[in-house]
Amino acid sequence: MKTQFPIRKIIHIDMDAFYASVEQLDDPDLRNKPVAVGGSSERGVVSAASYEARKFGVKSAMSSVIAKRNCPELIFVKPRFERYKEVSSQIREIFLEYTDLVEPLSLDEAYLDVTENKKGIPSASMIAKEIREKIKEKTGLNASAGISINKFIAKVASDINKPNGQKTVNPEEVEAFLEQLQIRKFYGVGKVTAEKMYLLGIFKGIQLKEKSEEFLTENFGKSGRYYYNVVRGIHTSEVKTDRIRKSLGAERTFNENIASEIFMMERLENIAEEIERRLKKSKVAGKTVTLKIKYSDFTLQTRSKTLPYYIGSKAVILDTAKELLFQEKMKNSVRLLGITLSNLNTGKKETHVKEKEIAVQLKFDF
């Protein structure tokens, strides 16, 4: 059998409840208890939740008030990002024992291309199992893994047998796997998109596959072509070891809602100062300033302006943010302000993927 796209051996490693698991590892009193990493105040937000907490419906990005209501026994701990980075570095060292083609997505997950690996192990599934065992031995933490022919399927697969499990989707299984996959499980399909697909009669991959590219593009814009391809197992993105930063920003949630624009400007000055510091550290500049406003009723608004030149100084960032702030009247009091600088001068690297016909044995060793 022949296919129209390259077949690779890709592993997606995803640490299980990483931040919360590190906290439980370091503090034995937290083990087997519902733990949330984040602020416990009225305006706090859950950054991560242990599996014990998730059983009560506690999840990341949830208001701490709602989380506590769902789980009265919930224990809040403050995040320790330096500690998480330390553990993440130990995990990455394990990845590099097998391949240099490692693409970190965050501190707790990464793609690995093991089509050719340093240890000459033919089975990607065996490599994933070894890596998970080494992570457990070295850090005491559990990891899950997805293994398949491309990044998209590997990421989807890593969620199948969580926690502390792995799922391999062999080349000959890809078609059936994607056809039976619930549409909300497709990476890149969020809650709003899933609901729209339901209205169009798309509940699983098999219904998505029945739709033409024209139909999907008409209903979902540029993402339509992406959905058309991935449901057919086509995803040519390579594992990139040098991910290019696309934006840089900072935001602040306030202890009390702010109604005065004078106070808002004071907060924006602090945020702009923080962004300037990060820009200098990263040695980048940008052209597009985006102001993020979250009102007291939790509605979110963004306003953007693109300048004709790159900026990196606090003064220019602040002036642009102020202009955006006064662009229209505030709808309500404000609980959060944020500034993001994008369109960065990090350089655009183009990857040209030539889709050539490659003969593939269906018993490709996974």
From TrEMBL:
Catalytic reactions on record: DNA(n) + a 2'-deoxyribonucleoside 5'-triphosphate = DNA(n+1) + diphosphate
Known EC number: 2.7.7.7
Record-annotated site: Substrate discrimination: 19
Subcellular location: Cytoplasm
Top-level division of the source organism's lineage: Bacteria
Family matches, as CDD domains: PolY_Pol_IV_kappa (cd03586)
Cofactor note as given: Binds 2 magnesium ions per subunit.
Domain UmuC span(s) in chain numbering: 10-190
Single annotated GO MF: magnesium ion binding
Active site (catalytic residues): 109
Residue positions binding Mg(2+): 14, 108
One Pfam entry name: IMS_C
Alphabetically ordered keywords of this record: Cytoplasm, DNA damage, DNA repair, DNA replication, DNA-binding, DNA-directed DNA polymerase, Magnesium, Metal-binding, Mutator protein, Nucleotidyltransferase, Transferase
Gene3D superfamilies in the record: 3.30.70.270, 3.40.1170.60, 5' to 3' exonuclease, C-terminal subdomain (1.10.150.20), DNA polymerase, Y-family, little finger domain (3.30.1490.100)
Biological process, per Gene Ontology: DNA repair; DNA-templated DNA replication; error-prone translesion synthesis; SOS response
GO cellular component, one term: cytosol
Subunit (UniProt): Monomer.
Family: Belongs to the DNA polymerase type-Y family.
Function: Poorly processive, error-prone DNA polymerase involved in untargeted mutagenesis. Copies undamaged DNA at stalled replication forks, which arise in vivo from mismatched or misaligned primer ends. These misaligned primers can be extended by PolIV. Exhibits no 3'-5' exonuclease (proofreading) activity. May be involved in translesional synthesis, in conjunction with the beta clamp from PolIII.
Protein name: DNA polymerase IV
Lineage, broadest ranks: Bacteria, Pseudomonadati, Bacteroidota, Flavobacteriia, Flavobacteriales
